[in-house]
Amino acid sequence: MTQPPPNVPTPPPPAATPPAAPFPPQTAPAAPPPSPFYAAPYTPPPKPGTNGFAVAALVFGLLGGVLLSVLFGVLALVQIRRRPQAGKGAAIAGLALSATWVVLGVGVAVILALTADSGADSTVADNGQVSVDEIRLRDCLNGLTEGRNIANLPVVPCTEPHDGEVFAEFPISGATFPGDAAVGTQAEEGCVERLRSYAPKAAEDPNTELYFLHPTAASWLTGDHDVLCVALSASGKRTGSIFD
Fold first, then answer.
1. pLDDT tens per residue, range 132-147
2. 142 and 203, same domain (yes or no)
3. Whole-structure pTM over 0.70, yes or no?
4. 71 lies in some domain
5. Which of 146, 139, 241 is nearest to 184 (CA)?
6. In this protein, which residues make up the domain named Septum formation-related (predicted)?
7. DSSP 8-state class, residue 139
């Protein structure tokens, strides 16, 4: 058995390892306190107002003010597209009413024109005397006499027997009265030329004669500057129009 050498210190025994401190248990974090909730009262948005131009367009459309209704209606539609306003229907209604007024106006004008044309064959419906100033194209006349001043003539429907028919009208040239001879020459030449243009069938008929009513020095001063060309039949009264 081996003995330790003398005077050699013996190492101390190893120190014991201290026990580990216990690990604190894990705990869930505390929930934050609930925040207070404030309920604000609901305020509905204000209703959009009606566009004033739209109302004006509707009113003028009802009254027949076409120009103003169209103007206000267009302005209203432009503004309504840019801002939240009511009234689009009123603006469109105003424009529609304006279009209706225009159509009605055109229709009335056409009816009046047709009525005027339908009455162009005769100035009056009976055999009444008519002023020479009121005689017009395609009037059929009686009582034509040469060599005297005529103020009134009987106008009859062309379907009845008549002396002559007015087929043309034209003014005497010149600012002042040119004299009876010059007026007669212009009237005759102008009526012959117009008979060939307006009623060539009557111009080729040897039975057709010309009669013209022209201004005198006295009637010229009252504004009478026109010549009325009248076609007559050499065989006497006739019925029907020379234009037929």
1. 778 888 888 888 777 6
2. yes
3. no
4. yes
5. 146
6. 139-229
7. -
